[in-house]
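Need residues for this backbone.
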């Protein structure tokens, strides 16, 4: 994954947001994943239009942290999402 990639949700993945947290379910495998508030915000931004770098900038602004730190974390999370079949690039 690269910061310029523009991932989107895999049609075989669904989610439910409760409060500030989300639960993701891979419909092919039945595996589910729980996200904290930051992960949930990232998930909600993954629309295939925004790059990971753009998502990082928005999240960094929301939480008043350095975009570079957020970008590194989001790249790691996006790599995990892709490996689990939750997103496509």
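Answer:
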């Amino acid at each position: 994954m690269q910061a310029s990639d523009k991932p989107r949700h895999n049609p075989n993945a669904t989610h439910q947001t409760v409060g500030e947290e989300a639960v993701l379910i891979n419909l092919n495998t039945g595996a589910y994943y729980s996200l904290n508030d930051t992960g949930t915000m990232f998930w909600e931004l993954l629309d295939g239009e925004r790059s990971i770098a753009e998502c990082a900038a928005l999240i960094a602004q929301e939480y008043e942290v350095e975009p570079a730190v957020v970008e590194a974390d989001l790249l790691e999370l996006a790599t995990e999402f892709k490996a689990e079949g939750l997103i496509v690039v």
